[in-house]
Design brief:
Blueprint lengths: L2 H36 L10 H14 L19 H10 L1 H10 L5 H33 L6 H27 L9 H8 L5
Helix pairs in contact: 1-2, 3-4, 3-5, 3-6, 4-5, 5-6, 5-7
């Protein structure tokens, strides 16, 4: 390494260390103030500095959240994060929607995702049953010439269902609410408490 690169790297590390040092001092002050406000320092509940150091490290790693805050209770099924619950509802189709919908919680975003998943895959299953009935009727009436048309329509609907499935579970995991055309209207009608 050339001497100029070593000096520049050393200056960068020195500036970075100053930044982290000031961040740690700020966090230590916040943690100490928070513990003092709770009476933990005055009552002797904190007997060693290891608790303060651990709280400081956790607070620094978590970013802006204080490490001593009690965890908030989630209003989602099974205590999952809302985006994970919504993504799973979409990912596992009608079964995932039913499990997440009846799994508890009152989060509207998660309830909507589960209800829309149930509606989307329920409609797709109903469509597939209709195709079987139409195929049987066409076979009985000797209208075999229409089989390719039904097949093409079924293929297109299957591709649309695949696209809808991919779109919904990806955006569900991203935490974005999805409202599919037609399916959203049906979902609102069948699950008014979820909308």
């Amino acid at each position: 390494m050339r001497p100029g690169i070593v000096v520049a790297h050393g200056l960068f590390l020195q500036q970075n260390m100053r930044h982290w040092e000031s961040l740690l001092v700020t966090r230590a002050t916040e943690v100490a103030a928070h513990l003092a406000a709770e009476g933990a320092l005055a009552s002797g509940a904190v007997r060693s500095s290891s608790y303060v150091v651990a709280a400081l490290v956790i607070a620094t790693l978590k970013g802006d959240q204080m490490a001593t805050q009690p965890p908030t209770t989630k209003d989602t099924p099974f205590g999952l994060e809302p985006n994970v619950a919504a993504g799973l509802a979409y990912l596992f189709g009608i079964i995932g929607g039913i499990v997440i919908y009846v799994g508890g919680g009152t989060n509207k975003f998660v309830k909507w995702a589960a209800a829309q998943s149930i509606t989307l895959w329920g409609a797709y299953i109903a469509y597939q049953i209709l195709v079987v009935i139409v195929d049987a009727m066409l076979g009985l009436t000797h209208l075999w010439i229409l089989f390719p048309i039904v097949g093409i329509v079924t293929l297109l609907v299957g591709i649309l269902a695949l696209i809808a499935w991919l779109y919904t579970f990806i955006t569900g995991f991203q935490g974005k609410e999805v409202r599919l055309p037609i399916i959203a209207d049906l979902t609102t009608r069948f699950f008014p408490q979820a909308s």
